[in-house]
Design brief:
By secondary structure, this protein is mostly helical. The chain contains five helices and two strands, in the order ββααααα.
């Protein structure tokens, strides 16, 4: 029995036979999905909203509301996590059969920490974007300074080093333009004005 190394392509390629001659002959892409959809047996939504801990069936250990002091709450949950780890170590030494409850409490604290950190992602994205834009601005300013220094060095090589220190670049270029015009007038008329 002969087997192919690669499976045959899906039959969709037949829809694009005339594409080279007529690009409009290809079928339109499907419309974007809105709402919920099923993928690999799990239900997903297109809404960009982070589900709350209650929606996930997890008890929230920090206060609810829009005005959460993230720094304070993260420190508090971190301290609580350290305490629970110490208690877990103590229970594992003294009563090894009772460790399951402490592991569940540690898991709950980790889920709350994870949720708090994920709620800071939009702020992190904004801060990262601001940082990238500031770097781009700084690079462009550095490039402008490099160009200015090349112009100054070029003008210095053309006219001598004295002019570079006496006049700014713009004035040097304007002065050069006036000199060229006077030179043209002199060569055209043959007299000095």
């Amino acid at each position: 029995m002969a087997t192919a190394t690669y499976p045959p392509p899906p039959p969709y390629y037949k829809l694009y036979k005339e594409y080279a001659q007529n690009p409009n002959s290809a079928p339109q892409p499907p419309p974007p999905i809105n709402g919920t959809y099923l993928c690999y047996g799990a239900t997903y939504t297109t809404d960009d909203v982070m589900p709350s801990l209650e929606d996930q069936g997890v008890r929230q250990l920090y206060p609810k509301g829009p005005n959460i002091d993230f720094k304070k709450e993260l420190k508090s949950l971190n301290r609580e996590l350290q305490l629970h780890f110490l208690e877990l170590a103590d229970i594992l030494v003294e009563r090894p059969s009772q460790y399951a409850r402490r592991v569940e409490e540690i898991s709950l604290i980790f889920k709350n920490l994870h949720h708090l950190l994920n709620s800071l992602r939009p702020h992190q994205a904004r801060a990262t974007l601001i940082h990238i834009l500031e770097l781009q601005i700084q690079r462009r300013k550095d490039a402008i300074e490099d160009i200015k220094s090349y112009v100054i060095s070029s003008v210095a090589k053309l006219y001598g080093d004295v002019l570079v220190f006496v006049f700014p670049v713009k004035e040097m270029l304007w002065d050069h333009h006036i000199r060229e015009e006077k030179h043209r007038e002199i060569s055209a008329s043959g007299t000095v004005k």
